[in-house]
Design a protein that fits this description.
Leucine Aminopeptidase, subunit E, domain 1; Aminopeptidase; 2 domains; binds ligand BES; binds zinc ion
Length: about 500
């Protein structure tokens, strides 16, 4: 899909469709103002008539398609509801652009032009629009012989921007591409079934990406993992015929300042989670191919940063393994010694994510990371708490977490701060080892999981993102296909760029 700046006036653009949006107001009638009024004038008052008839309300993501609109060279005019103006933001704009793309694509349209409202003719708005388009264009059709994307959008033009802002808007398009294509890179990885994405295959995919992006990569095999005494990762991996990998990708800025922070992005990559000996029920188990979502997220972030070039050093540290109930699998009650030296009583082999993150965090610190963020499809408990709406965000110190929450807000990803008070630490004390991998009480499963990770973080500023509920959509949205969401890529890119 090509995305380009278009300087022609909208009425002269001969696209398959022009997309614009209209705001609603209290009378359940779209406001024909600004850009909508211009379109209305070109179309001889048709929009006003539609609004007055009650058909065009401006309700969020309402779609009204007009064919062969008078006064326009385009074949169609798609009006998307933008909701109430006071609730409008770039997050809404992203959804409008995405929903328009999916609506037109499903109708066989090949190219269209997007006309933002006057106040959205800025480079930040252009970036949001293009991010929305790229996000929406993703389909899960890699293995479908008659691809869904036989219907494809080939070209989108951005209309209405001042000719003088061309260079600025084109730079925004490029930034959005770096981010959107990287999100989709992560989503493609998450979609891969576990027979086509073992830890070794994930490592090769990471390697190919790093080579193409010009990033440094180091892949630790099972021998080096054993030499480093990563007992927690090895404990999980020992139940599988497939050997584990620890994938490290580094971005280094051209000029490194002494004392500058080094950001470590640690991502859980369990390429399939059966639960191990504490095996999961069969119903829905196929979804557990997505249990490498945190790792895929961090690889996607590095891919984007290679283009966007933050001023600080950033590395992704991705522990990759299967969690299988093989003959050599670890068993409930087993004790493993993590790389840090801490002993862990494995109460439940299905709480494997925190085990592999423990060693990855220790290794990231060893490599010099001064600041950490981890992302993981870690607990069913976060799904109970926040459903598929918010990412659960834990962290200390609070100011560090607040900076990430601010980035999430800025890029339109919903994240919610979760508590990590000392009281919860009690719940992961073990009788026979330093800690146990499951909380002793009934409640607070997402928090005790976070606390387990924190045991390996110590005083390093750290954020933990539990994306178990948000990394996968069970049902399509108007602006996104069902399946992997790529959540947290945009936030982490923004966070690293601002650090
Ligand atoms: N990968 C799962 C988390 C998960 C569970 C995601 C359900 C989506 C739905 C994780 O490894 C896991 O199995 N966690 C257990 C931990 C429990 C045994 C303490 C869970 O949350 O049920
Ligand atoms: Zn599990
Ligand atoms: Zn898991």
């Amino acid at each position: 899909m090509q995305i380009q700046f278009e300087a022609q006036p909208f009425s002269a653009v001969a696209a398959d469709a022009i997309v614009a949006y209209v705001f609603g107001d209290k009378d359940k009638q779209a406001r024909i103002e600004g850009t909508a009024a211009e379109l209305d004038r070109a179309a001889g008052g048709k929009l006003k008539l539609l609004a007055e008839s009650g058909e065009l309300t401006g309700k969020s993501l309402e779609m009204s398609l007009l064919h062969f609109p008078a006064g326009l060279a385009a074949k169609r005019l798609l009006l998307v509801g933008a909701g109430k103006p006071e609730k409008f933001s770039h997050a809404e704009l992203r959804k409008i652009a995405g929903a328009a793309l999916r609506y037109l694509k499903s109708r066989g349209v090949k190219s269209f032009a997007f006309l933002p409202a006057e106040k959205d003719r800025t480079s930040a708005a252009a970036q949001a629009i293009v991010e929305g388009l790229l996000h929406a264009n993703f389909e899960s059709d890699t293995y479908q012989t008659e691809k869904k994307s036989n219907k494809s959008i080939d070209r989108v033009a951005l209309l209405g921007f001042a000719a003088a802002s061309r260079a600025e808007v084109e730079a925004a398009i490029e930034r959005a591409k770096a981010i959107g294509d990287s999100e989709n890179f992560s989503r493609d990885l998450i979609n891969e079934p576990s027979n086509r994405l073992t830890p070794r295959m994930l490592a090769s995919r990471a390697e190919a990406m790093a080579k193409e992006a010009g990033l440094e990569i180091d892949i630790l095999d099972e021998k080096r993992i054993a030499e480093l005494k990563m007992g927690a990762l090895l404990g999980v991996a020992q139940g599988s015929e497939e050997p584990p990998r620890m994938i490290v990708i580094r971005y280094r800025p051209a000029q490194k300042k002494a004392g500058a922070p080094i950001l470590g992005l640690v991502g859980k990559a369990v390429t399939f989670d059966t639960g191990g000996i504490s095996i999961k029920p069969a119903d829905g188990m196929e979804k557990m191919k997505y249990d490498m979502g945190g790792g895929a997220t961090m690889l996607g972030v590095l891919r984007a940063l290679a283009v966007l070039k933050p001023t600080i050093e950033v590395m992704a540290v991705v522990p990759a393994t299967e969690n299988m109930p093989g003959g050599r699998a670890q068993k409930p009650g087993d004790v493993q010694i993590a790389m840090s030296g801490k002993s862990i009583e494995v109460i439940n082999t299905d709480a494997e994510g925190r085990l592999i993150l423990a060693d990855a965090i220790t290794y990231a610190k060893k490599l010099g990371c001064t600041h950490l963020v981890d992302a993981a499809t870690l607990t069913g408990a976060i799904v109970v708490a926040l459903a598929d709406v918010h990412v659960g965000a834990f962290g200390t110190p609070r100011e560090y977490l607040d900076r990430l929450l601010e980035s999430a807000r800025a890029v339109g990803e919903k994240m919610w701060p979760m508590p990590i008070d000392d009281e919860y630490e009690e719940m992961i004390k073990s009788n026979i080892a330093d800690i146990r991998n499951v909380g002793s009480g009934k409640g607070g499963g997402a928090i005790t999981a976070a606390w387990f990770i924190k045991e390996f973080v110590d005083d390093t500023p750290w954020i933990h993102l539990d994306i178990a509920g948000t990394a996968w959509l069970d049902d399509a949205k108007p602006w996104a296909a069902k399946g992997p969401t790529g959540v947290a890529v945009r936030t982490l890119v923004d966070f690293a760029m601002k650090m």
